[in-house]
Amino acid sequence: MKVYLAGFNVDASVLQEMEAKLGKRDDITPEVLSAAYARISRDPRAINEIRQSARQEVEKSRKSNSTIIFKMGHHSVAEHAVFNFDILGVSRFAMEELEKFRLCSYTEKSQRYITLQDDIVVPVEIQGTKFEGMFRDMISAQNKAYFELYDKLKKHVFQQNAELALDPKNHNLLEGWAKEDARYITSLAAESQVGLTINARNLELLLRRFASHPLDEIKSLGKMLYDQVSEVAPSIVIFHQANDRDQKTYPDLKVIADALLSAATKKTFYDIDLVKLVDFTKCGDAIVSAALLHSASNYSYSQCRQIVDDLPELDVKKIFKAAWQNMQFYDSMLREFEYVNLTFDIVLSSACFGQLKRHRMSTITAQSYDPSLGITIPQSIKDINMDDFFQDIVDKTNQVYSAIKQEIPLAAPYILTNAHRKRIMIRVNAREMYHISRLREDAHAQWDIQNVSRSMAAQAKKVMPFVFACIGGKDKYNEIYKNIFGINPKIVELSLPGAREIIQEKIK
Fold first, then answer.
1. Looking at the DSSP assignment, which residues form a beta bridge with residue 349?
2. Kindly report the CA angle at 438 between 436 and 441, in degrees rounded to 5?
3. Rounded to an integer, what distance in angstroms lies between the CA atom of residue 437 and that of residue 447?
4. Which end of the chain has the lower number of beta carbons within 10 A, N or C?
5. What is the pLDDT of residues 241-284, one digit of tens each?
6. pTM exceeds 0.70 for this model
């Protein structure tokens, strides 16, 4: 057995410094890895030898990529080429489009931990129009309100947590709680930044979608990304232009939807269900327990299912308990839990959506922001009697939004705040539902996403009581485990110094 480290991410500045010292090199490109790995299936040489050949013949490697990836249709080969991007000065609104792509990694500037400034993106569609002054004035009022709320919330948080405040080491944490809630009044035009890691196959998809997008900011971002990679890796990012599928499909669907739904009775949104389970796999408990038996035996699924259907509840519980008894709070559910699904219709704030959309192993589709769905006002703002002040800023924001929407509907959402809501649908399998619950119901999670995930978990447990008997935030894991097994979970010793103490603290 042999293992070679074929490559790893290196800061582009390091590569530039190397070239400055040693001269220009043509083989500093991820294309050679794609080309080498593409040849593995048909070339008898050792992989490391194939890589060496690919590095020595870069132009030949590029032709090979074009043939194998695009003419022969083996697009997965492009996934071996990976890029890292620093993306700065992008609006929170545009960030939602960027972070739609599931098989990528993102780390974004957090409005929960960083004090916001006055940096905003004024969309090109609004620049130079009669709405630009109105837009800037409203953003200025929102930002002024942010700092006013932050000052009052900071005092409130320190008073409410007087013991924590005694230790200066906790001050950043407490200030963060104040920022977390003050940011609900800031707009989607606020600038953000993100580190993006993406492979060439997904980058090409992103570039096509962005080239087809009607908003100028999204198109410009796509062009800038393409400009950065087109010279470095021209053979694996080819189909990046706008196309009819991405440009026209949703507009065509909107025409049909407007025609079909225009006659429907308009319902008020005063009593909306913020989180509603609208569909789920029937007999989910039986399906997962049968799948667990299937993996542990040589029986067919049909045979396992028939056996499970005839079992008393006590024996079904034994199956699930066997699947859980060796788990730690950080372990994921077994893959058999992916055979059942739940679909939720959720109305949530922009701030909350920014967190839920991170769960990319789910299926999420979203509507546009809709002021008629109301807003989410943090309880802390009500506690300091600033909810009327908050609502007044929102009412003025809605007026500006309505004015802009009449003439420039695409750009109008930039003015809306983190408190404004949209409606989404999310489909998760049971394994992912557990992951969401463990992370987002935890006491350290932000309150808005806690509320949403807690409601999702409660409704999931009603329709699949065995499957979700172990669900809950990781801070409650010790309690949940003890309720099921009558004892605390075992603490696994890890090599990391202090790991035992860390784990004990996490499951208290």
1. 421
2. 85
3. 13
4. N
5. 899 999 999 999 989 888 888 766 555 444 578 999 999 999 99
6. yes
